[in-house]
Specification:
The complex is a heterodimer. By secondary structure, chain A is of the alpha/beta class. Chain A folds into 4 domains: 17-95 and 174-253, P-loop containing nucleotide triphosphate hydrolases (Rossmann fold); 103-170, no CATH class; 271-344 and 429-510, Rossmann fold (3-Layer(aba) Sandwich), CATH 3.40.50.300; 359-428, no CATH class. Chain A contains 18 helices and 24 strands. The two termini of chain A are 39 Å apart. The model of chain A is unreliable at 1-8 and 10-14 (pLDDT under 50). In chain B, helix 3 (36-61) runs antiparallel to helix 13. The two termini of chain B are 18 Å apart. The chains are: A alpha/beta, B mainly alpha.
Amino acid sequence: MKINKEPELKYNNSGSKTKIKVQNLTKSFSGITVLNKINLEFISGEIHGLVGQNGAGKSTLGKIIGGHYQSSSGEIFLNDNLIQKWSSKIALDNGIAMIHQELALVPGMTVYDNIFLGIEENKFGILGKKNINLFNKLEKNIGFNLDPNQKVSNLRIADQQKVEIVRALARNAKVIIMDEPTSSLTNDEVIKLHDLMNRLKNAGYLIIYVSHFLDAIIEVCDKVSILRDGSLIRSSKIQDETKTSIVEAMLGTKEEIAFPSKIKDRPFGKKILELTNLETKNGVNDVNLKIYAGEIVGLLGLVGSGRTEILRSIFGIDTIKKGSLKYESKKVNFKKVEDAIKKGIVMIPEDRRKLGLVFTQNTKSNISITNLEIISKNQVINNQKENELVKELISLLDIKPTSLDGNIAFYSGGNQQKVLFAKWIFNSPKLILLDEPTRGIDVGAKRKIYELINNLSSKGVAILLVSSELEEVMGLADRAYLIKNGKTINEIIPKNVTIDNVLFELFDAKKVINE
Amino acid sequence: MNSTKIINFCRDYAVLILIIILMIILTLSSDAFLTPRNLLNILNQNAPLAIIACALTLVIIVGGFDLSTGAIFAVASVSSAWIAINYNPYIGLLIAPIIGIILGYLNGIIITSFKVHSFLSTIATSLVFRGLAILITGGFLIPVRMKEFTWLGREKIFEVHVAVYILIVFAILSTFILTRTTIGRYIFAIGGNEDASILSGIKVNFVKIFAFSFCGLAAGIAAAIQVSRISLGTSQAGLGMELQAIAAVILGGTSIYGGSGAVWRSIAGVMLLALINNGFNILNADPFYKDLTTGLVIIAAVALTSGRK
């Protein structure tokens, strides 16, 4: 589908070329390296794609250039000048704007106010008259047809994105970094966005395009840089690449992470959970899956494919719109989380900070909170029993530090995760919904978590595992479902297929052949 | 390292430090201050406010606010006086805490079922309750001059007012609930991270309703003491008491954001405010400066605690 020809951009940047160069750029988060000695050059007048698997570091690289993260080491050069201090404010002052996956607009304010937020014309703090002419000039250049008086909260996501783009242009940005801009757009809107990107490029802008939609990258980019595990694999002209060559470079040959070995072909128990044509309002549509006692089942999908939402619908957070949820061969519909927990379902959420732990409380209280009934009589907590139980769990899971009244806000990610596990395992759950169990934790702690997951399953606990790290799902799961747009599209036995095949299917390249 | 320790100590115990400073100043300036009589008097006079502050601590830790305690206090007062005159003085005293629980429970139900912030909903219910109190009195005062009614607020056992004993028992009960029971644990957890608490299977609504009912109970008990003491039921009873109670709780160092705090802190907060008042009285100082001084002490306490986690 082609869009009506929109006006060429009148404003032209080509007089002043912008060049961004990063040299030996390294970034680590609490000891884990996510970017490793990246050397890259971006020049105005091009659309430069950054691709890689989940966690390859493509977003992080974009955010460092945009000034949202500080690099751990390495240099950034702007037009051959070494940058000493860097922040999103300084980046913006130098014409580099970033458009985030989660848009950063003020919903209650109008389009106009959002665009000029922070750069309002004022005299001694008193706002000047609305400069509609300036808005119209910007508008005309791009041809978005935005209504300046409309509230942003009334706009669709695609239009909100346009506001972000105009906002960047209003600040005289010459470089625009877009982080997964298409993830919430319809096909039609994607085409329009690409058209705009092309026009910006022709007007001399530099666009850095972070995306995992390879078709989009191939269609619109001039150059593509492929990242894997924080390292730059190669940077090449788009004509020299094909979808297959990009995927192959993204995969590489991985260093093997050792997964604890499982008892082979162990028999599973009775069917615990079965979803049939399940649909919710929150992005689950048509999910079919089943899971047996003692089985580890993985959900494989890209970010935003609806994996977490499937877990939420089982746990009673999101209401079921259509289809059925059978638990222990009875049709159920959990209205409240407590009901699911009472039936032996627990969820260990992805966001430890927001959904998992209570940081104002110590380790002991965090662990015992789900077990209070066991250690109390007539609602009065038995301190001695509580201490014994918590001590036992701390040593069982090897949580460090071992003190009962530790401040978990300062624990490492791995130990925080163990605290979350400790909370639940004493209650002998039947089904554990595990969302990103090893996000942001180091290799040693990962290994411990893997062993724990295996142990639980060998005791007959069913585990539904979501992870962005495909190796993890492939290494741990007995069975896995491929998820796309909130649908289960295929079922695989991980030991019979390769990760490459899974990725090819998730990226739409070709279907996995089950053996 | 050591200086940060001292700073942290000051932050944690700001309210106690201020109380001690104030007591030293008052002891040095007047012989009448540091006498058992004066100190017990302070306790007795502030027992109703302190009882409310104890229970309000639970509400604030769970992440809520109760601006209707003053109005509950009024309804309980006038009902108590009305029943004492028309039926029986003992039943009159007993009815106050019962009405307190019922109104507190109503608060809890409204907050949890309509999902409105308690700050807003308790402003609304305080108007409703105050209106109810006016309806009960018909706009008149209800004097109750029976010994069977006034003993609660006026009698002494071993030279100590009954109200002080009630305060002590209530403070111990509140502390016990908060620190030793499952529901106390849930109160801290919900105030610290409500989403995580829901995912932990805690009956969040039940816990909130409990906290608000308990706060209502406290307002009712406080009302029984006060109405018996002044032997007069009035719909204007407890005006502004809710703000004093909140100020005392926060002054004591309980986090306004919920998730942390303690009952003793709130009592200390009440006592700090009371000492300023008492100081003005025994020093015969110009009462025009009282509000000003109270405000400055609150600012000092807040400044000392700022940055505390």
